[in-house]
Amino acid sequence: MLSGLAPHTLALALVAGVLLDLWLGEARRWHPLVGFGRLASVLERRLNAGRLRIARGLLAWMLAVLPLTLLAWLACATAGAALHALLLYLAIGLRSLRDHTLPIHAALADGDLERARTLTSRIVSRDTAQAGESDVAKAGAESLLENGNDAVFGTLFWFLVGAGPGVVLFRLANTLDAMWGYRNARFDLFGKVAARIDDVLNYVPARLTALSYVLLAERGRLRAWRCWRTQAAAWSSPNAGPVMASGAGALGVRLGGEAVYDGVTEERPALGAGPDACADDIVRAWRLVLRTTLLWVIAACAALFVLDGVLRA
User: Most exposed residue of 47, 67, 150, 287, measured as fewest CB within 10 angstroms of its CB?
Assistant: First the structure.
């Protein structure tokens, strides 16, 4: 195993990390990713200037990610399975997705659109000040489907590949893409490396996530598959497209369409099929993400215990 752990030990660490996340949720103080974000901001301010912006972006990425990944590898080599599980807990964001999106549903159910707008603005980059109920519901469902891949399934995938160090590498790279991967004057060149590395690391997990959404579709696996195959390519992100198209098809709702960014209305490609999203679709999207997590954990543990038996035979 790349992790150095026996398969059954990796399976136990996987379960422990997921359960810790569901039990404790996101660390409210001294979360490592918050500190990493500050480090990334310092590196960006110092290196994102002058010529050779792409090379500077590569250097910044290496300085931010590689030393911490190496440190995680050295620590896990001596600390054992408990540290692997702890790193997974700190990296995965299943409980956080629930805690940030279900209150939006509750606000809409109470008829408090203003509060729903405020809560939505905390998890998406689009403008929500004038968003209607369907716009808010759509944003919440889209965030759950897309971030289900980034914060949960990509994290689980790279934990299975490289255990603690693998999950550290993935989450740090994903964080840098979220901070630097914008197509604007400031980041278009400097953040190109971070964006492309994240695309590569997420390529397989995103398609496994899309396939999982198809398998667990509430209202038609064929429709979810068709939405994935016909709509994903039109989306700007090569990984978010399959995830969100299959997820929207699995829920039987329509996502995408108009969204306002920095005061400018953008017409995004349509995703899914059916009526526009409503408040209840946020809950349904959360349940899809949760069911998919259970599927991944059960399938991974089963495969690891079978592999353990083969290696012991």
Answer: 67
